[in-house]
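INFO  loader      accepted 1 record
INFO  loader      residues=92
INFO  predictor   begin
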Amino acid sequence: LTVPEKFTETTFEEVDKTLLKYLGKEHLITPDMVRGKFETLEAAVLQNNWPTLKEAKGKFVFVLDDKESKRALYIAGHPSLKGRVLFADADP
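INFO  predictor   done
INFO  writer      dumping tokens
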């Protein structure tokens, strides 16, 4: 039986670093890219600051689909997901 790895802050840091290393920032759509000049990711999304289909072509979007402990670990210390690679579930 495979024992799943326990997710920690370090685990998530490694996930971000690995995605950046092997895919490269130029092949990712990240929260920082979507946020752009806006103060928060929410403000950017509400103003439709997503990349166009042309800008998004050939790029990856990664989402952390968890509304509990994993999300809390991932967003801790990263308001509006600043510096993060994954998008995370959010409460409206």
